[in-house]
Amino acid sequence: MKKVAVIGYGGQGAWHCDQIIKSDVVSLAGIYDIKENRREAAREKDIFVYSSNEEIFADKSVDIIVVATPNDVHEALVVSGLKSGHNVICEKPVALSVEEFDRMVEAQNESGKLLSVHQNRRWDVDYLGVKSVIESGEIDEVIRIESRIHGSRGIPSDWRCEKAPGGGMILDWGVHLIDQMLKLIPEKICTVSCYTTHITNTEVDDGFRLELGFVSGKTALVEVGTYNFIAMPRFYMQCKNGSLYLSDWKTKPQIAKLTRWIEKDVTPVQNAAGITKTMAPRDNLTLDIYENEIPKSDVHEFYRNFCLAIDGKCEQYIKNCEVRRVLCVMESAFCSAETLTTLKTDI
To answer: Rounded to two decimals, what is the model's pTM?
Structure first.
């Protein structure tokens, strides 16, 4: 088993430690955190605590270093970890700019070690459910996908509320939803339009609405809100032969599959002060409505894949080119929001 040391023992760092302890391919060497109360929290769980980051970098028995700190110090820690001869996993977003990430990749290439970014939401069953429908072709080609996460508690009251350490919802949740969307629609993006909200926070975005246009004409909406007391569906997808609706990340995808386009003798429905045939619901002669099962998922596949990649036995599932592309979209989103314009892109 490969030994892992974790830098940063906050919420995500502690999550990594819990998963590593349960893993069948890695074991936990220990942690370091700049805060004494977090170091003490690790000791209370019988986790070894290093005296500094430098002690971790000097430990040649460690195979992998996990960086789970605020975003603004990712670059320095990742580069130091790679230069010290370790493989490195970095929490998302890996960097605050494409330029920062390019320097990390350069350090990886010079070190001969591997860098991975923990895009763990690729194992979310809601995303996997949508992905399986697209790959099956059961309702034909995608026209539009809408992906949303809505909450009602604002931004967590820690560094994620502040600009300097890399707070805000584009960097926090947006990085996940954009990554998922680029896997669902693997095409070049030609337009980016983004609007941010600042309902509970003036320093960073507490929500955003991002529209992506793809070269084929497909479109996508990525939306995050932290002041929504009635949440909209997690996913909604239009395809050429039907639609998909998924209310939240625990429910089964609901699918409406078109079996016949023409419907004779449509009965008008009363709508407000008039009648309409256009908006009359379809009947079961032209539409098949059903649910798909929730896919199986195992978050430990992330570490399994990375360990195999370290040994040269497979490719990394999360590739640096994919990570860089997500960063390019986020940079364009910030620019669009600041200038209140739709950007033409080639991402």
So the answer is: 0.96
